[in-house]
Design a protein that fits this description.
It comes from Williamsoniiplasma somnilux. With 106 residues, this protein is of the alpha+beta class. It is built from four helices and three strands. It has one domain: Arc Repressor Mutant, subunit A. It is 63% helix and 18% strand. Strand 2 and strand 3 form a beta hairpin. The longest helix has 24 residues.
Length: 106
């Protein structure tokens, strides 16, 4: 998959992961890379932007197995934004499927 296309959907992917539970940075990056194979710095750069836009927060939690970890948690605003992104993605996917002559499946 093209890197620009991956970056375009990364905000949706990160927020979707965070909507299920809090993640620490390395763990989130690992799980996302199983799907999109992105550079580690790309995920962290977008996390920083999501924090600046109040779509997620970062907090530090002590670990029993080593140093403290930075965790990320979606905010209420982030959940609303995620719902909007999901709807936009569904509409975009339908249009592209029709354009390519295929059928649309949710």
């Amino acid at each position: 998959m093209d890197i620009q296309l991956k970056k375009g959907i990364l905000e949706l992917v990160i927020l979707k992961f965070l909507s299920s539970r809090d993640y620490y940075g390395y763990e989130l990056n690992k799980d996302i890379n199983e799907i999109l194979q992105l550079n580690e710095s790309t995920v962290y750069a977008l996390l920083k932007k999501l924090i600046e836009k109040n779509l997620c927060i970062q907090y530090i939690k002590n670990s029993d197995n080593g140093p403290s970890r930075k965790y990320y948690q979606i905010t209420t605003l982030g959940m609303q934004h995620l719902k909007n992104l999901e709807q936009e993605w569904i509409e975009f996917n339908m249009k592209i499927s029709v354009l390519l002559g295929g059928e649309y499946y949710e």
